[in-house]
Amino acid sequence: MRLAQRLKLFADCTAFRISHYEHDPHLTVDYYSGYLLCTHYHGCARKHVPQIAEQLANTLRASGLPIYGAVQKFRPENLAHVPTQNHEEQIQPRLLFGAMPPDKFVVQEYDLKFLVSFHAGFASGLFLDIKHARQRVRQLAKLGDNVLNLFSYTGGFSLAAAKAGAARVIEVDSSAHWLRWSRENQALNEVTTIRQRKEDAVKFLHKQKDASFDLIICDPPTYSSQKSGARFTVAKGFADMLPDLHRVLRPNGLLLAATNYRELPRKKFLKIFSQRFVVQEEIPISADFNGDDYLKVGLFQKAV
Predict the structure, then answer these.
(1) CA distances from 18 to 57, 117, 166, 277 (A)
(2) Which domains, ranges and CATH numbers included, belong to the chain?
(3) How far apart are CA 64 and CA 169, in angstroms?
(4) What's residue 7's pLDDT?
(5) Helix, strand, coil proportions of the chain in percent (round to 5)?
(6) How far is residue 16 from each of residues 32, 51, 117, 287, measured CA to CA in Å?
(7) pLDDT tens digit string along 234-266?
(8) Are 127 and 43 in contact (CB under 8 A)?
């Protein structure tokens, strides 16, 4: 997809992808409120990245968008093999030109605001590919609903549900770091109806009473490890959680499940949930990701 086509898609967003492997099969470039994030993978022709960034920056400037600086970061193909310690050098961005972005700064996605960072880990704090699903939650959550957001990360889905009028939103994540970040996002959007639980999401779900929630969002990492307990993997994790997901939803309740795991085929993903739920729709990846099909997002209704 040409850059000009992408820009037309995001008149109301200040963060979007501007190159999805088009310039190099091992390079993506994202725009975040005036800063370019060039993410390279193994095999990238790194010497060409500054030139690509300059070229894209010039086109964006000509379109009227501000450009304050550009950075380059490395991201492993498989984060499951990255050591949890001693990878600070990999995490840190390298300035290509202009100013280094602040530790955290604000981007706008329609009427929601999010804090992002190029300095904290391998991700920015906001996954741009799943913005359609966040918008769908705005449409699905109703006044008075009880909503559960499992593996909540920085709380994007929680904010969407709260802004839609949900009476109670519970977000669950085992990371105090992400929960703090989510609280910052809540303050930024003046949201006060979200409650947090620092806990393993699978264990939390298992303890909930029957028919407790109208809407559940379940977007787990592909892999995760706890200090105690078994390692979570997405395909097995979905299957193991299925009975509890069905049990704690109210009659006709909805489940939005998602994964970016390329090795889980779309057909198998849908089949896992069709054992207990009725498939309502698939939510597509954001258009600026050029039709890539790695992201699976399904909306499922509890079969009564």
Answers:
(1) 10, 18, 34, 36
(2) 3-116 (3.30.750), 128-302 (3.40.50.150)
(3) 38
(4) 83
(5) 35, 30, 40
(6) 7, 20, 14, 10
(7) 889 999 999 999 999 999 999 999 999 999 999
(8) no
